[in-house]
């Protein structure tokens, strides 16, 4: 497996064609024997060479290294118009510099010596074997130094073997390869002609998003990014791994239809369901699906008896998908190759969202195996899983487990856990590797993934990255300009209604609520108590065993004035949109977390925890790590001493749960699969709590006490 940051030539011989030829192929040359005619025609028709001189191809003449480099570069699809890194050779004529630089950048040649390419020296057949094996991506066994030929040394043995096995060369005789012989122009023509007939690799380019959660405020820049990627590779597929619903006022107001209009405009090819797509039941989801100008894929969601979704569901894999319909999987044709795409949604949806009794979430492993089998029966050996189960999520299903347990999946485009995978993750458990990608959250990034498949449908190379949509230049201007059409649509059709919603009153406070930086990062505050109370209440609706809630002080960004609480104030307090996580922690881990929380006290620390469901005392005069003197947990209305051997369900946000603010003990729990991510955004949880408790009378209650300050 190769992970190349940039594909210079995605597949060999991308820009040349092969055609059968007869004697007419070389009528312009007087020195081309019949065995070279087709090869010479191939080179001349594709403008790889015009021959040695007028009327002469130079078939039996040796070829110099620079001429061989020019012809090979052209055969591979490199052009003089492109820019390549300077290889640093001082003896290459201007006419061949581009080709030598291209081959050096591609790893085909390192020259003869430092700074010297040996441009006008003849290339030997042994050296040519290395160039060809590397250029055409032949499978080379570096340990196989022995060959059928008696004149091949250990240096070139593996490459000569690769040429023989691929059919590029049979040698000069049964026992002689001619490794030290000067390569003839006719022989080189044969090599390039045969190379063009090798089974071509296939490049699949994916543009991917996930967990956008109605964050469309930057959609005009996102459109520019997608357009640029599509211009670079028109055959790219644009896919989404779910959770378009819920997360901002745009969803609260437009129920996904605002997002959908922009998705349709950008030309998405497929989407799978996230758990939040079911937050308002299936009626808004059905409207979302019906109006989509792309199909949905979901192999493990069975809604055949649901009144709203049943008419849209197709329990099949198809190569003729209809927009606004749901399929187990679809087959897309990309550059003449068939690509299978199927979808999966986390089974947690049943308990963390509102799909209703008529929607069944079937076993994701079993349904993935069925989907793969269906594709293989249809002759598809390039398979993409579009999943919303989490990268290494502890909710009972995740992408890493899927890759390990189900053979045949080449790529997993994931969502749900909001992971920022800057580089693709590779699982090589099975017979073939699986590439896993995920693009964080909230339209912050657009993900790209290029994978090269061999003729058997196995991924041989890959390159992926995340493109930051709101990236800025040094002068603080945005790197990507806004698409004017999208910008105007957002500004005129959707934003005015959101501005009205921001002014709406969502609660009332009898007194000012303290969210000042110097307070929430050093001590218990009334606002910290209110936020964690809201978090704990929400977590209990998902897992009734949850008894503790923890909120890092760095996630609270402002105070709230006494009187009416507006939606805009709430969004100012919690601007990050952090989502809910529920951890299974031992008492010892909780105590260690509290020690970390107060390790810098009385100095400000973003890791300082506001808490609900427990109270603890610490002594800031003691050495960090040995400050917490007592911890009590509220279980069933009674505070009892923390049992370090017992396991507790603890709510927090996903930032902290994944080890943010250096909570290493939480990171261990996350990696162990002890963290569930139901995904409800903090400000939504908070406003929901305010709706149930509109007259806020929060206070400091002695949940956190520093005995040294008494």
What report would you give on this structure?
The protein has 710 residues and is of the alpha/beta class. It has three domains: 3-123 and 182-196, no CATH class; 202-491, Metallo-dependent phosphatases (Purple Acid Phosphatase, chain A, domain 2, 4-Layer Sandwich), CATH 3.60.21.10; 504-706, 5'-Nucleotidase, C-terminal domain (5'-nucleotidase,  domain 2, Alpha-Beta Complex). It has 21 helices and 28 strands. The strands form six sheets. Strands 5, 7, 8, 9, 11, 12, 13 and 14 form an eight-stranded mixed sheet that branches. A hairpin with a 6-residue loop joins β13 (425-427) and β14. α1 (37-45) packs across α6 (185-196) and α2 runs parallel beside α6 (185-196). The radius of gyration is 31 Å and the shape is elongated. The protein starts with a strand and ends with a strand. Mean pLDDT is 92; it is low at 1-26. Residues 23-86 form the SLH domain. It is found in: Secreted. One of its GO terms (cellular component) is extracellular region. Keywords: Hydrolase, Nucleotide-binding, Secreted, Signal. Pfam families: 5_nucleotid_C, Metallophos, SLH.
